[in-house]
Amino acid sequence: MRCNWETLYENICNCNKCGLCTKRNHVVVGMGDAHADVMLIGEGPGQEEDRQGLPFVGNAGKLLDKMLAAIDIKRDRVYIANVVKCRPENNRTPNPDEALACLPYLREQTALVSPKIIVCMGATAVRYVLGEDFKITRDRGKWVERNGIFIMPTYHPAALLYDEKKKREAWADLKELRRKMTELNINIFEETP
Ligand code: URA
Question: Which of 52, 82, 124, 136 to mutate to test the pocket of ligand 1 (most atoms within 8 A of CB)?
Answer without folding.
Answer: 82
